[in-house]
Amino acid sequence: MAEYKKHKNDNKEAGLPVRPETAVRKTDTLVYALGGLGEVGKNMYCYEHENEICIVDCGVLFPGDELLGIDYVIPDYHHLIRQDKKRKILVITHGHEDHIGGIPFLLRQVNIDAIYAPRFAKALIQKKLAEHKGLEKTKIIEIDSDYRIRTKYFTVGFFDTIHSIPDSLGVLITTPNGSIVHTGDFKFDLTPVGRNADYQKMAYIGALKPTLLMSDSTNAGVEDFSISEKDVSREIMGIMRNAKHRMIIATFASNVYRVGQIIEAALATGRKVAVFGRSMENVVDIARKMG
Ligand SMILES: [Zn+2]
Questions:
Q1: At 218, is the secondary structure helix, strand, or coil?
Q2: Could you tell me which CATH number the domain at 2-214 has?
Q3: What spacing in Å lies between the alpha carbon of 96 and ligand 1's midpoint?
Q4: Residue-wise pLDDT tens for the chain (291 aa)?
Q5: How far does the centroid of ligand 1 lie from the alpha carbon of residue 283, in Å?
Q6: How far is the centre of ligand 1, averaged over its atoms, from the C-alpha of 271 (Å)?
């Protein structure tokens, strides 16, 4: 970490906005994002109270065409590096790269007590960390919607949501200044493929009147409903039945449910499946291991 020491409290020098320290009282709970606002990628949100920081998600952003030769764009972790005396936990809502891709880079610069991740995300993170020397033994605790994390100032609970990857969780964080609902990526689909969202728990949390809602999901600003995954599933099956020859299908590896539907339809229509591409192979491999 020595190489970062010289940046200590040098926001001004680094050209970053300088926050007047007096504006924050010791009893305040701070809420801020290091990435993920107004962009699709590098989601990373922090909830800070006194000497504790609860970080939710740690993603990368895939660079556009203008960033030739750049593999990932990651958030600026300097604020967390400067808070090296504070205890930090990292909570992961789901296993998409824009929520977990930054973890190896964060761990190299910032001390994290533990990573809490749902089952599928945990497997993806373990695979990722296995490729980074020295990080293989990072403590990752598996969580589900019944899990509770208790620190001195925070109680963190979870609720099931639907997303394109299995095991997606929304987060409820109780702080000394009220409660915060952090939805993670989600959609509403009354006939989903895979586990349903826990609407009852959401309604219950709503009835408790949380102080703050942090909600951000791709295309949330577009009116109307997205079509149900069950409809997509029927459509895929129909196409496979009618196609006489070999089929080539392109989809995002991150859309694990969609990949699963394609493979199931292929098996149901007596086809063999070949998977191409590094992330596609990774995801299929882990999905099979997870059942
Ligand atoms: Zn996602």
A1: coil
A2: 3.60.15.10
A3: 5
A4: 333 333 345 566 667 666 666 678 889 999 999 998 888 889 999 999 999 999 999 999 998 888 899 999 999 999 999 999 999 999 999 999 999 999 999 999 999 999 999 999 999 999 999 999 999 889 999 999 999 999 999 999 999 999 999 999 999 999 999 999 999 999 989 889 888 999 999 999 999 999 999 997 778 888 988 889 899 999 999 999 999 999 999 999 999 999 999 999 999 999 999 999 998 999 999 999 998
A5: 14
A6: 30
Helix ranges restricted to H, the chain: 2-5, 78-82, 97-100, 103-109, 119-130, 199-207, 229-242, 256-268, 278-289
Residue with tokens 């969580």: 143
Whole-number Å distance, alpha carbon 178 to ligand 1 midpoint, is 27
Q: Which CATH superfamily is domain 229-289 in?
A: Metallo-hydrolase/oxidoreductase (3.40.50.10710)
Q: What are the tokens at 153?
A: 């100032």
Q: Where in the chain is the domain with CATH 3.40.50.10710?
A: 229-289
Residue 117: which of 126, 108, 109 has the closest Cα?
126
